[in-house]
Design brief:
With 518 residues, the protein is an alpha+beta fold. It folds into two domains: 283 residues, Nitrilase/N-carbamoyl-D-aminoacid amidohydrolase (4-Layer Sandwich); 158 residues, no CATH class. 19% of the residues lie in helices and 32% in strands. The chain has seven helices and 30 strands. Strands 1, 4, 6, 7, 8, 9 and 18 form a seven-stranded mixed sheet that branches. Helix 2 runs parallel beside helix 4. It starts with a helix and ends with a helix.
């Protein structure tokens, strides 16, 4: 029997060793100071433009390699972010034709540039990875021909995909991933079903997704469950949308809730996208990030990360919790940032209990400020709930959510502040006690966070704990920016008929469509 145990131990030893390994990840967040019209350019001209961007990427890769970085992630649309007025026909010249990776005989474009046609950008990326002996994750455009025997073939005879490619430290193509959930990108196509670009490295198993894919069941939740991937590479061009979808806060909460390493590379485009990149881990205090900031960056950040192996994820349903009686029965209805319809109550006292409901779901808050508040600055806090009754029957994947939020407002206008007035006393915006609870939510998938104000933006806070839809601070917290319990209703995760924010995507797309096509 001892012999059998010994054999089993050695058979499992590689997996055990792999699970204990660490790797150093890095993300690069470029700044695009201005954009010019894409227009109609030749393939040669398009390749030259992208190679000019890749020359900058090569410098970043060389520097990162010298610092011991194992895998380096660049943002979504990084090769064409300097261009505006993107059209389906115009982007064609910027698309490679990327083959599916061959695991048996990996293709190294740097060594075999002519093995496949129209792969000039793949060759350049491969050579950067090989020269610097580093894994690279770069977002590019892929063009795949189709014909009329394919009922879904576009009118112009080609599929165009928003695509991540991953190249190994030997320069081999090891992963190709097509973005599934497009965010107002009419020049790209969506694959019929979600893809899973899983690949193995000497330092762990990885997969990549793109931007809006992080929000959906088939491209995140199913990827993690079915393929046991704990390291997600995440090129994105993320629109910070307060109060729920601020890049660093939302992405960090996902990493913590799913027990994954999320390696997120965003981009900064003047007057358009404010950035917000990071390397987030399940550990409460283990992360590094660049929150939204108008100042240029053009730098990378790196962090040594533990390979999690096949870590466990649990989303148990919360217990039935009674909704406490509210100190303030005056509920206000408002729409935040033109997107989020909420019901809210003000915190009228310096300590107390408030609650607010919409349909069958409720949020409650037990609170105490660190001192008696003044009224000179007209700053107060609200507890708000987001929940809508309508179900979007046209989208089987769903964009539904239920959320509780605590945030400061001014002059009783239901709009979360992004900065504080100079000179406001800390006691007006700091809490000695804070426990926020989600009641009767139709999901067990909760992504909570608490953030605090700093001199220019916000900081991730770690002085709190979460238990199945209830968050509570573990010590006094100064200058609270917001506290959020974000509940995501994946398909089949709800048991009631009430879903949330079915029209968010449509509204948001309408709001930004003009900007995207400028």
């Amino acid at each position: 029997m001892n012999f059998v145990y010994t054999v089993l131990f050695f058979l499992q030893l590689p997996m055990l060793l792999s699970a204990e390994k660490t790797f150093t990840a890095a993300v690069f967040e470029p700044t695009i100071p201005s954009r010019s019209p894409m227009g109609f350019v030749s393939r040669y001209n398009a390749v030259e433009q992208m190679k000019n961007v890749l020359n900058g990427y090569a410098d970043v890769a060389a520097n990162a390699s010298e610092k011991g970085v194992d895998i380096l992630v660049f943002p979504e649309n990084g090769l064409i972010a300097h261009l505006d007025y993107v059209t389906r026909l115009g982007i064609r010249s910027f698309l490679d034709t990327i083959p599916e990776p061959n695991k048996e005989k990996p293709w190294i474009p740097c060594d075999e540039p002519d093995l496949y046609p129209r792969t000039e950008i793949q060759e350049a990326i491969s050579c950067i990875a090989k020269k610097n002996k580093i894994y690279l994750v770069i977002n590019v455009g892929d063009m795949q021909p189709c014909n009329r025997t394919d009922a879904n073939c576009p009118y112009d005879g080609r599929y165009q995909y928003n695509t991540n490619v991953v190249y190994s430290s030997e320069g081999a193509l090891v992963s190709r991933y097509h973005k599934k959930h497009l965010f107002y990108e009419p020049y790209y196509n969506s694959p019929k079903t979600a893809e899973y670009g899983v690949f193995d490295t000497p330092f762990g198993r990885f997969a990549s997704i793109v931007c809006f894919d992080i929000y959906f069941n088939d491209t995140l939740n199913e990827l993690i469950k079915k393929h046991q991937v704990s390291n997600i590479l995440f090129p994105n061009l993320w629109f910070d949308t307060p109060p729920f979808f601020l890049a660093s806060l939302f992405h960090n909460s996902i990493a913590k809730a799913f027990n994954i390493n999320l390696i997120s590379a965003n981009i900064k485009i003047k007057n358009f996208v404010r950035g917000g990149s990071g390397i987030y881990t399940p550990s409460v205090n283990r992360y590094i990030y660049k929150p939204l900031n108008l100042a240029p960056s053009d730098e990378y950040i790196q962090l040594q990360v533990k390979n999690l192996g096949k870590s466990e994820r649990k989303f148990p349903w919360p217990p039935k919790r009674a909704v406490p009686k509210s100190d303030n029965p005056d509920v206000k209805i408002a729409r935040m940032t033109k997107l989020f319809s909420v019901s809210a109550v003000l915190l009228q006292k310096d300590s107390g209990v408030v609650s607010v409901c919409k349909y069958n779901a409720c949020c409650s808050l037990q609170y105490e400020f660190t001192s008696n508040r003044t009224s000179a600055f007209k700053i107060n806090y609200i507890l708000a709930i987001g929940n809508e009754k309508t179900v979007d029957l046209t989208n089987p994947e769903g964009v539904d959510m239920q959320s509780c939020i605590l945030c400061p407002i001014k002059n009783e206008k239901i709009s979360c502040l992004m900065s504080l007035p100079a000179g406001i006393p800390d006691g007006d915006v700091s809490f000695r006690k804070l426990k926020m609870t989600a009641h009767n939510f139709n999901t067990s998938y909760f992504f909570p966070h608490i953030a605090t104000f700093n001199s220019s933006t916000y900081d991730i806070n770690t002085s709190w704990k979460h238990d199945r839809g209830e968050i509570e601070i573990t010590e006094p917290v100064d200058k609270i920016f917001n506290a959020v319990i974000f509940g995501r209703l994946y398909p089949n995760s709800s048991t009631a008929t009430f879903a949330v924010f079915p029209a968010i995507l449509i509204i948001l797309l309408n709001l930004i469509s003009k900007e995207l096509l400028l």
